[in-house]
Known about the structure:
Elements: H1 34-50, H2 53-56, E1 70-71, E2 78-79, H3 95-104, H4 119-122, H5 127-139, H6 162-170, H7 185-197, H8 201-204, E3 230-231, E4 234-235, H9 252-261, H10 273-279, H11 286-297, H12 314-320, H13 329-335, H14 337-340, H15 366-374, E5 376-377, E6 389-390, H16 399-410, H17 422-442
Antiparallel strand pairs: 1-2, 3-4, 5-6
Amino acid sequence: MKRSCIVALLCVAGLAACHKSPPPVPAAYDSATPEQQAALLKQGEYLARVGDCVACHTAPGGQPFAGGLAMASPIGAIYSTNITPDPTGIGGYSYGDFDNALRHGIRKDGSTLYPAMPYPSYARITDADTQALYAYFMHGVAPVAQANKATGIHWPLSMRWPLAIWRRLFAPKVVAWQAPAGADPQVSRGAYLVEGLGHCGACHTPRAWTLQEKALSDGDGRVFLSGSAPLEGWIAKNLRGDHKDGLGSWSEPQLVQFLKTGRSERSAVFGGMSDVVEHSTQYFSDADLAAIARYLKSLPAQDPNDAPNHYDDRVAKALWQGDDSQPGAAIYLDNCAACHRSDGQGYARVFPALAGNPVLQTADATSLINLVLQGDTLVATRTAPSTFTMPGFAWRLSDREVADVVTFIRGSWGNQAAPVSAHDVAKLRTDAMKAAYQDNHHR
C-alpha cells in the first residue's frame, strides 16, 4: 500500500526549480563514544521501522534495503533504490546528501526524486532523528552490491525535470517538528509520528487533481486522514472520529492492540495495511503506540452530522428463524455465517465482526468486494503469532452473487452503506486479474 500510493505522481509535469542544499552537518556517529554509537544505531534502527523503509526498499526474496521492488504505474514500472552503504547504493552519500534525499526529495545528482518517496511527510523529521537514520543506514545496515534498475518508463515521460516544479509547489519547506506550546506531550508525539516518519497521510488522505495530498496535517483541515481512493485494490480508510467509516467507535486500547498485533476484538488487518503491521507498527514501543492512538482519537469527525452506530437485530432474527428471502441472505448463510455468524458479530481476534464495522461502510465498497473475490490472510506478529485465512470466492460466486452478498453485509445489523452492482464487481474482478499478471511479470 505505502509503496505505490503516490506512484501516479510520475505524470506531473512542470518547470525546473532551484534548490539550495543545507549546510553540511557533521554526522553525530563519527564523534560519539562506542556507547553513544550503539545507542544511535539502536535509535536509527527503530526509526527505520517507524518509517517502514524495508517495505519499499526490499524486493521479494531480495536482501534488506537493496532495492529492486517493482512499482507499477500507468506509464511503466519504477524500481525502489538500493539504500545500503555499498557504492552501488548510498555508500558515497554525505549527511547532506542523505538529508537532501530524505527530507527535500533531491537526489545526489541534484534531480528530483519520484514522490513515491514520501518526502513531503519526511520534511517534518527532526535533525536528531535524521542523524540517527543516517548513522543506521551507514553503519548498521549490511552493504549489498546491487545496481539500481532503470525505470520502465520511456522518453519523454522518463525525464525527471518536470517533477521539480511539483516539489516546489507542493512539498513543504523542511521545518523540523516542534510541539505546539501548551500541547499535550503524548498527542504531540503521536502527531509527529503520524504526520512525519509514519507518513500515514500518504495513503489515508485524499489527493487533489494535481495529485498532492490535500492536507499534510490536521491543522490543514478535516480532510487530513479522511480516507482515499482505492490503492492497489484496497481503500485506505478514514482515520478520523467518524463512527460510520472512521475510528469513532474504536477505543485507544483497541487501536494500540490493532497496530501491535494486526487484530482487535472486532477487527483484523487486511490488504496493504498488513505490510504496515508486519514490517512496521508491531515493532513500535508501547509508549509510541499509545501516543498514536491518543492523537488519532483527538481528530474530530469529518462529517458534522456523524452519530454512533446502533445495532439492529432484525436481520439476525430473520436468519435465525430460517428466513433467507432478502437478496444476498442465502449466499451469506452458505459462505460467510460460519465465521462471521448470523448476528454479524464474528469471533473476537479471529473472525472480524461485520456489524458496525467502519471498514465495510465506506462510500466506495472496493475493499469488501476484493475481500470476497480474493480473500486474504491475517499476518502473524510477534505478540499474535496465529494466522487465519479467508478464502476467496471469485471461483464460486458470480458477479451478481458477490454484489448481492456485499450489499447484504453493507445494509445489515445497523450498517448503513450504499448497495453495489454486478458491474462494480466485474470491474474489480478484471482489475485484480490484471494486477496479478503485472505483479508476476515484474517479478
